[in-house]
């Protein structure tokens, strides 16, 4: 009885509890950061801490789940539209803020420039990873939420090649392909809901890749 309760407890740890842990970690960093740090540096440090903590907790769940356990978890847990919108918006704003932060770095001493470059790169890359991880998690929920059989999910959701039941790796693959190319891969979209979600995801990915990433590369090249 006790041996099975612990895995169940680990799986039942909700997305919101993981988010709360990440917020607490960010809050702890906010308290211990030196007061002489510039307010912009403090903001990026706080965001990066919470983001990395949250990514670590979510990826730990996604990469260790079996197809059976992730089916049960995906049916019950999701970020929710408001949380998704808030996290994606915050990630985009943090990335834009990092770009503005870099724009004001011309002429600063080398030690500070290295710190600012590191913080900005971590912010932008981490925010990019966060956006597509959130979408991967949400795709899994949309796929399994109705409790249908694997055949029904393929006909009214996503049709992955092969007959194996998809796990989180498959949804990460689908999400990150959209994130890198703004188009779907060899996975066929068979649901109107997921098609609309993929459209939104593709538009956001295009904006992120062409605007934020491109501007960052140009600014870093100019600073170096």
Report on the architecture of this protein.
This protein has helices at residues 2-12, 15-32, 39-64, 67-76, 81-103, 110-144, 150-155, 168-181, 192-223, and strands spanning 158-159, 188-189. It has one domain (39-65, 81-223). It is mostly helical and 224 residues long. Residues 1-12 have low confidence and may be disordered.
Count of DSSP E strands?
2
Which structural class should the secondary elements be placed in?
mainly alpha
The dominant shape is: globular
Number of domains: 1
| Major sheet attributes | 2 strands, antiparallel
Mean pLDDT score: 80
Helix fraction, binned, reads over 70%
**Can you list the strand order of the major beta sheet?**
1-2
Unreliable spans: 1-12
Distance between the termini: 60 Å
What order do the SSEs take from the amino end to the carboxyl end, as H and E? HHHHHHHEHEH
- Gyration radius from CA atoms, angstroms: 19 Å
| Total count of helical runs of at least 4 residues | 9
Q: Classify the beta-strand content into a percent band.
A: under 5%
Question: Layout of helices and strands, plus pairs?
Answer:
Elements: H1 2-12, H2 15-32, H3 39-64, H4 67-76, H5 81-103, H6 110-144, H7 150-155, E1 158-159, H8 168-181, E2 188-189, H9 192-223
Antiparallel strand pairs: 1-2
Helix pairs in contact: 2-3, 3-6, 4-6, 5-6, 5-9, 6-8, 6-9, 8-9
Produce a short descriptive summary:
The chain is mainly alpha-helical and 224 residues long. It has 9 helices and 2 strands; from the N terminus they run αααααααβαβα.
Please describe the structure with a list of short key phrases separated by commas or semicolons.
mainly alpha; two-stranded antiparallel sheet; 9 helices; 2 strands; 2% strand
